[in-house]
Amino acid sequence: MTRSTQSRQGQVSTVLARRLGGELLRLRDAAGKTQQQAAESINATGTKIVKMERGWVPMRDPDIRVLCEFYGVEDPKALGRLLELAKLDRERRKAKGWWQNTPGTGSLAEYIAMEDVASRIRNWQSSIIPGLFQTPAYTRALGVTEESWTDPAEIEPLVQVKQKRQRRLLGEHPLQVYAVVGEAALRQQVGGPSVMRAQLERILELSELPNVRLQVLPFSAGGHPCIAGPFSIISFEEADALDVVQTDRVLGSAWVENEAESAKYSTLFDRTARQSLAPHASVELIDSLCKEL
Question: What are the beta bridge partners of residue 38?
Answer without folding.
Answer: none
